[in-house]
Amino acid sequence: MTRIWRETGFVENDPWIVETDDLTAGEDQKALLDLDTLIVRAEESNDVGLGVVLKPADDVSRLEPYLYRLEIVAVSFPAFNDGRGFSQASLLRQRLGYANELRAVGDVLIDQIPLMLRCGFDSFSVTNATALKRLADNRLPGIPHHYQPTARSAEAGQGYSWRRVSPKSA
Amino acid sequence: MVDKVLTANRLTDGISVWLDANGQWSTSLQGALVARHPEAVAALEAIGKRAYAENKVVDVNVIDVQETEGVLWPLRLRERIRAEGPTMEYAPGYPIADPKFIDA
Amino acid sequence: MYRYDEFDHAFVAERVAQFRDQVERRLSGELAEDAFKPLRLMNGVYLQLHAYMLRIAIPYGTLNSKQMRMLAHVARTYDRGYGHFTTRQNLQFNWPKLSDMPAVLHDLSTVEMHAIQTSGNCIRNVTADHFAGAAADEVADPRPYAEILRQWSSVHPEFSLLPRKFKIAVTGAERDRAAIQVHDIGLHLKKNDKGEIGFAVYVGGGQGRTPMIAKLIRDFLPEEDLLSYTTAVMRVYNLHGRRDNKYKARIKILVHETGAEELARQVEVEFAQLKDSELKLPDADVQAITRYFALPDMPERPEGWESLARWKKADEDFARWVQQNVQPHKNPDYGMVTISLKPIGGIPGDATDAQMEIVADIAEEFAFDEIRVSHEQNLILPHVALADLESVFRRLQGTGLETANAGLITDIIACPGLDYCALANARSIPLAQEISSRFGSAERQAEIGELKIKISGCINACGHHHVGHIGLLGVEKKGAELYQITLGGSGDEHTSIGEIVGRGFDPDKVTDAIETIVNTYLGLRLDPSEIFLAAYRRVGPQPFKDALYGSAAEAA
């Protein structure tokens, strides 16, 4: 079972899917397009409210002209230890100023979610049973004291300029 | 076929263990259950997989041994060192590995 | 040295709690091994041949007596009464239980120690010159910057799942005692013409399977840009470092495959965006951190000059120890003392809990409570009055810590090797012991002079054999151990990777081969002041190949 989680809780009726040969977007669903397809679609139409799913090797700067037309950017973690998504997210938020939904999809596990939150992710597609349970209990294993500024802003003034603190585990 | 035994490290303390004839994980190589034909090896592998899945042990491997007059002798130096411990005096009160066992 | 404030204490306590939760989930089976492994690695927990191994961080190799005593306590209470100091200035325990780890980490946290990021695909312990702050030739103390990098890199969410491990070293003198050119990032602290502090930045050095010397990508990086620039390098690496092949995943491969110039350009492009961000280092912060590393109040002790001369005349052993193990301090009344962890025939880098306590006591009484760990696996007391040297020596005598061999042939660097390590192909320790015993006489050692032998039990090169004057690499051939010899390596400011001399040697032939090499050197050196490395660089490998593999020689 896969569920979508945000800090406000699990999301029901999430419309976004990745289309495959067997699966196409139904009536209340929308397709997350791969980067090349998204660019073509954006160039050839005036559509807004689009969604894209990035692969780890994708260059996020290619999205820059189309950001305002995106409702969601999904970033893939084919293996939980492929850390490229963390940089992609950081760049989307901090460099490109992307402000809409930023979702982690793929091998999303509970111990990486606090790190993902700090890199600017705000929604998570979660399949792992332990992760689902911990999220349901709102028991995230993060550390609220941080030694570096990140995409997600946190409170400064903790002694040295690079330190931050979060109000709760993130 | 070369004789084989099943070895792993205990999850709780990491200590090297070998599966013995009683199906227990023992800290001594001698007394390990020896698999002498492919079906027995497959059975060992299955036991190993289950023990790993049940979070009793980690780093499970089937290793080659030679049995001579009842003494099991791993074919790989690495496994002989695992069985005996470090090959020099490293801390007072702990036995040193038997050089005759270690050397090929 | 740096002292934790409330923030640091809170962070470590949270980290201990976080790991305790992870260990509990692992032991209960809720967390499986493949998900647990990167988490335990980021807390310094390895699985080795016989047991788990816990690697404790000793930031840039600096610790005080209270911390050393806690390491002794951990050795006694949770382990087998000893620890091993490593080539990255850390400490390893070889027999801790996973179930004890949370307790161990809690105990360590009470003295401002931890095991955070001593393993895993993240930024590791930032190492520095072990004589930092005391060396007469230092331009600036590298440790404040090592501390800033240490803090900034702790649980950095963007850089916790890198393609591979990442190692940074900082040096602050022209003489490079931190081997910065064989690190992923090497920082050479210096001053420009205007007297401003900055760094020469080297990227892509490393040993292991494909040893490479780092490339200079920035001649002068202003101090305030340290974190922005490092972020730029890390981000380029995180995005573009190879993830398809573990053996090609270090930044050195990225530099090699991209080209240093192009990689530097990519870093500069990213840096340009970060330069004026919140990562800019305010001078006030640098000054605040630097203050922690101020020299202790060191009283004038002029009587030391006369006493020292007198003691040396009266006691040959003492004289030899001073000659070999005491280096000039920037304050002439003081010296930098090396406590050798290489007793003749002993295990390089190991110390018992009793020995740790002795070092702690001596540091507290005679050395302003400051101890360093060098990447050559010795302990350093950076500030000892000449007038106290004799007392220090007497306290060391009979403890196994008094060996007067710093930098000599018996001051061998060796990884744990196949006696402990799951990655190894061959043993290192017994070989080190044999070589040490063969050359153990004081006269022989003095005759040979400075000669750094470094031994690795596998291609991962944790023994740093590539930068040994004589390097030994243990390999497995047809189920048996075999040792390849390299010559002419060096980790100093003229970094060189050692060259393989020829076919490898069986374990029982290696010490003879070393003897052949040494005798060849003694025969062709210009005079005793020409050390082995210099002689090798002058004559090249041929005389040694001839001696080892010529008609009179045998090899595997």
| Biggest sheet statistics of chain B | 5 strands, antiparallel
CATH top level of the largest domain in chain C is: Alpha Beta
The rough form of chain B would be described as globular
Mean pLDDT of chain B: 96
Instruction: Provide the structure class of chain B.
Output: alpha+beta
Helical/strand content category of chain C: alpha+beta
Write a structural description.
The complex is a heterotrimer of chains A (170), B (104) and C (556). Chain A has helices at 35-44, 84-95, 113-118, 129-136, and strands at 3-6, 9-11, 16-18, 30-34, 50-54, 70-77, 101-106, 123-126, 145-146, 164-165. With 170 residues, chain A is an alpha/beta fold. The mean pLDDT of chain A is 94. By secondary structure, chain B is α+β, with helices and mostly antiparallel strands. Chain B has one domain (3-75). Chain B has helices at 38-53, 77-84, 99-102; strands at 3-10, 16-19, 25-26, 57-68, 71-74. A five-stranded antiparallel sheet of chain B has the order 3-2-1-4-5. In chain B, strand 1 and strand 2 (16-19) form a beta hairpin. By secondary structure, chain C is of the alpha+beta class. Chain C folds into four domains: 6-109, Alpha-Beta Complex (Sulfite Reductase Hemoprotein, domain 2); 127-291, Sulfite Reductase Hemoprotein, domain 1 (2-Layer Sandwich), CATH 3.30.413.10; 306-396, Alpha-Beta Complex (Sulfite Reductase Hemoprotein, domain 2), CATH 3.90.480; 423-549, Sulfite Reductase Hemoprotein, domain 1. Helix content of chain C is 37%, strand content 16%. Chain C is built from 18 helices and 20 strands. In chain C, the strands form four sheets. Chain C has a five-stranded antiparallel sheet. In chain C, a hairpin with a 5-residue loop joins strand 8 and strand 9 (197-203). The mean pLDDT of chain C is 96. Classes of the chains: A alpha/beta (170), B alpha+beta (104), C alpha+beta (556).
